[in-house]
Amino acid sequence: MSDTEPRYDVREQTGDPDHASVDDVIDLVVHRAQNPRTEHEDAQFDRTMATVIDTYGTEPVRTVIHRVLVDNEPFRTATNGLEMRNVDGVRIGTAASWSLEELNAQDDG
Questions:
Q1: Which residues form the DUF8158 domain (predicted)?
Q2: Kindly report the CA angle at 46 between 52 and 18, in degrees rounded to 5?
Q3: Which domain holds residue 84?
Q4: How far is CA 47 from CA 1, 9, 53, in A?
């Protein structure tokens, strides 16, 4: 992958209006954290994000998701300056990338 290719198919990276926006991803991550699925195969992401948001609040999570999906920052370093553990950046980045993939798949269907 070249440096000019988007790492994630998020609208702010690709310019494609069919791709989910970073705000759509953030909204889904926060919604699922507030309303965790119980019997879903990805329910662990919801519970993990609920804990992360309870610990740090919504704004730092929003910042990490933007840094990961739009600014191409690695999960671990997207937490810089946020008084957040690097491992939580990995958790947020993972949940965000899964949510983006899900949103884009819905739009394809």
A1: 1-108
A2: 105
A3: 11-108
A4: 33, 25, 10
User: What residues have CB less than 8 Å from 72, skipping those under 6 apart?
Assistant: 7
* Cα-trace Rg, the chain: 13
Residue 85 lies in a domain: yes
Distance, in Å, from the CA atom of 33 to the CA atom of 56, rounded to the nearest integer, reads: 13
DSSP secondary structure letters along 8-31: S--HHHH--TTSPPHHHHHHHHHH
Q: Is residue 76 part of a domain?
A: yes
pTM of the predicted model as reported, rounded to 2 decimal places: 0.91
Report pLDDT digits (tens) over 31-87. Answer: 999 999 888 888 888 999 999 999 999 999 999 999 999 999 999 999 999 999 999
Count of the separate structural domains present in the chain: 1
